[in-house]
Design goal:
Elements lengths: L4 E2 L5 E2 L6 H41 L1 E5 L5 E6 L4 E6 L1 H4 L3 H33 L4 H4 L5
Antiparallel strand pairs: 1-2, 3-4, 4-5
């Protein structure tokens, strides 16, 4: 270890040479790493805050889905949570089996709209945070 210096913990450091230039270079590199770490931590905080904001917006949003003929309407939140189902008298008169199909059709329509809105909002969030286009494309359908 010949050129190293003794550190405060009693160990020898082969990286820190006996001249001050070596030490300054080492300190500069470590300082830059600390700055990078702090920048990444701040970016993570911004992403978390913005993601929570988008999730709240989606939870408050409602998306209506309809079956053919609009005999049944299903409403979902932007987080794909069921909000309500409206069934017309005409749909009720078609019988349980047909009504089940109409409800399923309306639910699928609402779900597709809700998921599409979520993907668009998340993609917009990614772009607003400066993520590379390739990463935010994963949110689009």
């Amino acid at each position: 270890m010949g050129r190293g210096e003794q550190l405060s913990n009693g160990r020898m450091s082969p990286l820190l040479g006996s001249n001050s230039t070596s030490f300054r270079i080492q300190a500069g590199v470590l300082g830059n790493m600390q700055n990078l770490y702090e920048t990444v931590k701040k970016a993570q905080m911004v992403v978390q805050v913005e993601a929570v904001r988008v999730q709240k917006e989606l939870a408050a949003a409602e998306f209506d889905g309809y079956c053919e003929g609009e005999l049944v309407k299903v409403t979902l939140s932007g987080n794909q949570q069921p909000v309500r189902t409206d069934i017309t008298e005409a749909a009720m008169e078609l019988g349980a089996e047909k009504l089940s199909l109409l409800v399923t059709e309306a639910y699928k329509d609402a779900h597709q709209k809700s998921v599409q809105a979520m993907k668009e909002r998340m993609s917009n969030l990614a772009q607003s945070l400066g993520m590379p286009p390739g990463l935010s494309d994963g949110f689009k359908s």
